[in-house]
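We now fix the convention by which a protein and its fold are recorded. Think of the row as the fold of the chain written in a discrete alphabet. Here is one such record, which you should read through line by line.
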Amino acid sequence: MNVIKLKKIINTLSFKSLKDIFIFDSIDSTNTYVMEYHTELQSCSIVIAMEQSSGRGRYSREWQSSRGGLWFTLLSKPEKSIDDILPLYYIIPISIIQTLKKYGVSADLKWPNDILIDGKKIAGILVDTVILKKNVEIMAIGCGINLDNNIPEELSDNAINLNSIIDEQCYEKFTIDFLCELDNVIFMHQNKLVDLTKVAQGYFTGICENYVLRNNYSVIFSGEIIEITSKGELVMRNDSGEVRKFSYGEIFEQKE
């Protein structure tokens, strides 16, 4: 798949909610691009890269972004309070999971930002924001989906691509199917036809599992996940019976 062919295919599609779609052969990071040029882009525009030279995950960790994977960022300009934007976090994971269903593949959403198939990561999400006076003005919702790209040997125990599951090249078809699903999910949300928070609740995995929560690699809590709330908070209980809530941005988690 090359940029020209992908552009031609996408230009034949009709979207209800998605705006401009920009496709680059190679770029440092789609999130970086969107954050730099957001004033020139419409809300609900997408930037796609065939490969990223400086792809990153949470806490600036390197994200392998070779050709064959779908690397993109969705721009949103919600102009809403921090407490009101949670559904926007779920637009992409719900769209991914529902697209995978069309391939007969079942996936789960692992709090806070991973899509898993049988415990292995097929996609990860990174959200960058611009906040002014407690309102979220800009959201760059970045995502990487492993499709036909090779999974490095050192990551093979924890990551998977769709190609290895369905045993066929899938970048072109999945990209089109996903964009159509994403457009539909955004349309449903914009017109208040679906509660994305409730939909996401049905996809979360990890309830009743033990986790160690860390912040900057320091352990801050260890225990069993007992709930993920409608606000997206992780609720945990330790061996002493203490129950605490953690918001999306407070920590990252690592399975014991």
